[in-house]
Amino acid sequence: MMSERYRATYERSIVDAESFWLDAAKAIDWIAPPRTAWSDRSGWFAGATLNSCYNAVDRHVAAGRGGQTALIYDSPVTGTIRHYSYVELLDQVSATAGMLERLGVGKGDRVVLYMPMIPETAFAMLACARLGAIHSVVFGGFAPPELAKRIDDARPRLLLTASCGIEGSRQIAYKPLVDQALALAAHAVEHVVVMQRPMLAAELTAPRDLDWSKLLADSEPVSCVPVAAEDPLYILYTSGTTGTPKGVVRDNGGHAVALTWSMRHIYGIRPGDVFWAASDVGWVVGHSYIVYGPLIAGATTILFEGKPVGTPDAGTYWRTIARHGVEIFFTAPTAMRAIRKEDPDARHLKAIGTGNLRAVFLAGERADPDTLAWAEAVTGLPVIDHWWQTELGWPAAATCFGLGDTRRRRGSAGFPVPGYVFDILSDEGTPVPAGDTGHVVLKTPLPPGCYRSLWNNPAGYAKSFATFDGYYETGDAGHVDGDGFVNIMGRTDDIINVAGHRLSTGQMEQIVASQPEIAECAVIGVDDALKGMVPVAFAVTKAGIEADGALPDAIVARVRAELGAVAALREVHVVRALPKTRSGKILRAVLRSLANGKDVATPPTIEDADVLTEYRRLFRLG
Amino acid sequence: MLSAEPQTLKTRTGIAIRVRPAEPSDEPLLARFFESVSADDRRFRFLTATDHVGHSQLAPMTECDHWQTETFVAFEEGDALPVATAMLACDRSMTSAEVAISVRADRKALGIGWTLLDHVARAAQRRGIRVLQSIESRDNHSAIELEREMGFAARPVEGDPTLVLLEARF
Fold first, then answer.
1. How far apart are CA A347 and CA A349, in angstroms?
2. Which helix (DSSP H) or strand (DSSP E) does residue A352 occupy?
3. A-B Cβ pairs (cutoff 8 Å, strict)
4. Domain span at residue A529?
C-alpha cells in the first residue's frame, strides 16, 4: 500500500526517536559523530561537531562529484545563466570565507546580509557557515528602519550588500538603504562590503565601505571550522506580534540532519537530482531549500532572479523547469495564482511541457483548493500543499512523496511529518473532539532542525512553550480530519499572510496611528485573489481634522517607509468611526467580513450598530 | 444610589488600592496612564496596536453615566498615576455587560487585576447584570487565565479565531 512506508517511518520516528534520528544523522559527515540524539539538557546531537559548509560543499568534491552542477543562477531580469559545479562552488565559497576572515570574522560573529538573489549571496551564507560565523539575511523588501532593528539586535561585525536588486524591470539601489539603516542603528558595523553589479555602481565611503570583488580577488581560501551541533548557524528574523521581530536561531547539527532527511523522504530528491525552490534567500524557504537542503543533499539547486509573471511572461517558471531539467519544484500558492491569472488556459505550459518534473510542492500560505485543482489539471502532476514555519525550519505537515506516499486532500497540508506530533487543543488545553477546530500544537521536544532559541530573547522563546504544557504553540488554528489529514486554517494572533510572507498587523497599525492626523485605526487582512490576503487600513481622523485626498497616500507612504515594500497597504479607508464593543474594543472580524464583501449580522456586542451603515455603503452591501 | 466615594480594596498580596469612578476631567490622567501600560496590553485593551490612546478612545471611557457605563480608576497610596482602570459597559437593558481591565506595566502580577475584576463583577451584579463578558485576544494569556480562575467560561468568538469570549453568569 503506497502509504505503508510513510506509516512505518512515522511510527518509528515517534516510538524510537533516539535511534531514528541517530540513523538519520549518518547521512551527515561529522567531525565528532553524535552518540546521543536528544538530551533534555543540551538539545540535539550534543557533543557532536561538524561544519555545515563542509556538508554542503567540500564533501561532495571529496567524494568525486566535484564536476556535478551544484548551483544554477538563472536571472531572466539580467539575461544571465551561470552554472557552478561543486568544485567551482568550493572555490567561490572558500575564497569568500577567506575574504570575511581577513576582515576579522570568526566563530560566533554575526554577519548581516542585505542582498538580492545573486550567487554571491549563497556563497556568503556558506562562507559564514564555513567560518562558524552566524549569518542573518534580511530580505531586500524591508525598509531601513526594519534593517536597523535587526542590526541592533544581531550586532553584526560586518554588513554585506550589493549595489542593487532588480524588481521586474526596476533597479532598486540597496546601498542608500543600507546607509540609512546604519544611520538609524545604534550599533556600528566595522565594514560594509558591497558587491558592485554591472548595472549600477554604489557609492562607497572609505574606510567603512569596501568593494567585494576587489577584496575577493585578493583572498586566500580557508578551511572549515569545527562547530558544535548546537552552535548557531544563522539568525532569521520573522514577524512577531506588535512588530518586534523574532530572531529565530537555527543550529548546525539538527538542521543539517533534518534538511537532509527531508530532501530525500519528503521531496524525493537524490544526489544529482535538480531541485528548484522559487523563493528568496531572505525567507526560510530560501535558507532551507535554495541553499542548505539541496546542497547538503548533493543535488543541483537553482537560484532564480525573477518573478512568476512579467519576467518576461507567465511561461517563465515552466521554461526554467524545462531548461534545467528540474525534477521537484517548490513555490508559493500566490505564484501559481499569478501565473493562472495571466495564462488561465496554461498555453505556455502546454507549449513548453513539464520536462522532468515529478511533483510540485506549495507552501507559504494555505493552498486554496481551486488553485490546487487548476495546477494539477494543467501539469498532470501531483501538486502537494505542505506546512511549516520559520521557527521549525523544515516541513511539519506534508505528503511524504519521497516515501512513496501520494495521498493528498485539497485544502489540507497533508500528514504529520516523521518527528512531529500534532495535537489540536481547546483553550483549556484539552484535546478537542476529533475533527473540531482548535489550537494547533506540536509535542515537545521538537525534532532536529527546529529552533532552540530566539536571539537575545529567552522570554520570547519561552512564551511559545508556556501556554500548553509539553507543547509548542504554533500560533495557528486548525483541525485533523477523520482520515488524519492536518488542516491549518489561520493564525490566532495578529499575524497575517500576504503573498506567503508573514506580516504583523499590529506593527502596521502602530505606524498608521503615528500619522499626526489619525486618532485611531485598524489594519485588517482582506482576502485577495492573487496574494491570498492584503493589508487594508481603516483610519479615523482626529476631531476637527478634515481628511483630504492626500491622506490615504501619505499613510501608505509612511508604512512603506517604515516597514518596506513587503508591507504595502493595499488601501486606506478614512472612516467616520470604527465598529467597536461597548468597552471600546475594535470589532476586527466585522471589518474583515465587510471588506471581504460579506455583510454581517449586527453583533450583540457592538456599541453602535449605525456605524456599520457607512461600511455597508463603502463595500456596497445590503 | 451608587456611591461616587472612593473605596479601598486589598489585593491578595496585601496591596491597598483606592478605587473611584472616572470623570471627564480625568481624560489627561488616563492618557498618561495608558502610556505606562505595556504595548501588548494597550493592544489587548483596544484590539488595535497604538502607542498613544487619544480623545476618541478616552472620551467614551470618561464621559459616562455612572450607571450603564462606568470606568473605575485605581490608585496606590502616594501615587498620582493610576495603577489600573476597569470599564464596565452594560447593554441598554442592563442584563449583560462587558468588562475591560488594564493594569500598569510596572504593577502587574500583584493581584490588582483580580481585585479590580472582582470589584467590577460585584458592581455589575448590584446593577442587575446577569451576564458579564470579557472579549480577549487569544494572545492575552494572563487575562484569560485570571478570568477563568475567577469562574468565567471561555468560548470561541464566531467569525474571529483570534479572540476568545469569557463569560460569567450570575
1. 5
2. helix A347-352
3. 122
4. 495-618
**pLDDT at position B86:** 98
Residues A501 and A614 in one domain: yes
* Nearest CA-CA partner of A485 in A407, A430, A540: A407
Instruction: For residue range A202-213, list pLDDT tens digits in order.
Output: 999 999 999 999
Domain membership flag for residue A62: yes
How many angstroms separate the CA of residue B105 from the nearest CA in chain A?
16
d(CA A361, CA A227): 33
pTM: 0.92
CA pair distance A315, A343, nearest whole angstrom:
8
Distance from CA of A151 to the nearest CA of B (A): 22
Class of residue B27 by CB neighbours under 10 A (exposed 0-12, middle 13-18, buried 19+): middle
Cβ-Cβ contacts under 8 Å for A371 (sequence gap 6 or more): A333, A336, A337, A340
Hey, is the C-beta of B90 within 8 angstroms of any chain A C-beta? yes
Contact A494, A244 (CB under 8 A): no
For residue A235, list its beta bridge partners.
Answer: A249
pLDDT single digits (tens) A304-340: 999 999 999 999 999 999 999 999 999 999 999 999 9
Residues A197 and A250 in one domain: yes
User: Which amino acid would we find at residue B22?
Assistant: A
Inter-residue contact A120 to A195 (CB < 8 Å): yes
For residue A606, give the DSSP letter. B
Cα atoms in the 13 Å half-sphere on the side-chain side of A60: 26
Beta bridge partners of B9: B17
Q: The CATH number of the domain where A594 resides is what? A: 3.30.300.30
ipTM, two decimals, is 0.96
Residue A409 shares a structural domain with residue A537: no
Give me the residues paired with residue A424 across strands: A440
Is there a contact between B40 and A241 if contact means CB atoms under 8 Å apart?
A: yes
